Amino acid sequence: MMFNNYKKLIKYLFLTPLLMAFQCDDELISTIEYNTYSIKITPKKTFSLNDTIWVEGRISAKAFDTAINDSIFNDNNQANSFYISKFITPTEHSNAKDAIDSFELIYEVGEFSFLGICENSKLFADAILDKDQLFYTYKLGLKPKFTGDFVISGLDGEIQNVERNLSISEAYPIDRHPKQIGFLNCEAVSWLYIEESTREFLFKVE
Fold this sequence. Notes:
Structural class: mainly beta
Distance between the termini: 97 Å
Helix content: 10-25%
Number of strands: 18
Radius of gyration: 26 Å
Order of helices and strands: HEEEEEEEEEEEEEEEEEE
């Protein structure tokens, strides 16, 4: 009797890992991998008060499901957010300040909203699905109200512009933070090494 029980125990111990393996295969965790935005900005360094700077973003309507190892339709598109700031006379810690109100916003494609606690700082672009259901797209126009030097920062995606006019920041050095932009947004300061980032576009309005 003890020998038979021992054989059953050995058989159980042998089969358990196999059963668990089959169970794991049947219960693969689905991980969704999303694409990133492709962003184009009107390719100029200097604009006039009569110009409009267009910011256009698009992202594939497909995502990748690791459980089935194939693409699926992405029905949960993420908003693309970014800051708009104006360069200012450098202080001890900052040289750029939030400046959405320096522009008339032209909502061409998509839906747009603002950071509730500080509407002059951060803007959210909700892309909409195109008629072919291949891409989510948005298009925003910035019509300047004032002259000055500006930076669109924190764009979550790949900027297609070959030239991003980074040299504009050199006219606003911060002694304590060389080669950095110090953003004063929502009364808080953050710093960025401009040459190490790929998410900024600088331009002039004259």
